Fold:
Amino acid sequence: MTCKLLVLISGNGSNLQALIDACASGQLNADIVGVISNVPDAFGLERAKRVGIPTAVVDHKTYASRADFDAALLQRMQQFDADLVVLAGFMRILSAELVAAYAGRMLNIHPSLLPLYPGLHTHQRALDAGDAEHGCTIHFVTADLDGGPLIAQSRCPVLADDTAQTLASRVHPLEHALYQQVIAWYAAGRLRYANGQAVLDQHPLEQPVQL
Structure:
């Protein structure tokens, strides 16, 4: 059975494009049923429209409060009837109520080796700390910012002459491959969320899988 994906974006949508390509090629047994952005001119919306994926905009700037925005976003999300919600560069903090509605059915990718560097500017923070390695992490979304159960990570070395931009350019391909793998696990019924933990092949993950 094909897994129905709903992708939330705020920007360029490079992770979205990688998922579009993986679904189209049959590498991923999934179907993107919709793309929602909180930014009306996000280029990721154009990527979706080019291949006929339905899109929607819920512009956070048009709502008086975060609660109002989240209520409108949740209503729009539910109209797509997705099996799994994929956050792909979605730059809004979601309320506990919205997250609870998709408990165990919402993934996020974060450009750091969590629990290191939740939040923004992760590449520069890794450089400032003198880290030898950097990378990305996929986790189930909970009400804690970048704090849900960790599922998988990919790593790359930090080079002596790296800038935040060069480091980001090497992390992006890792993100694309990692998201595809984790979504494939979910689509195949191998990955689930139970008792506050990520469970892969019936085994609770004490540490994220390194890929």
Remarks:
- The two ends are 26 Å apart (CA to CA).
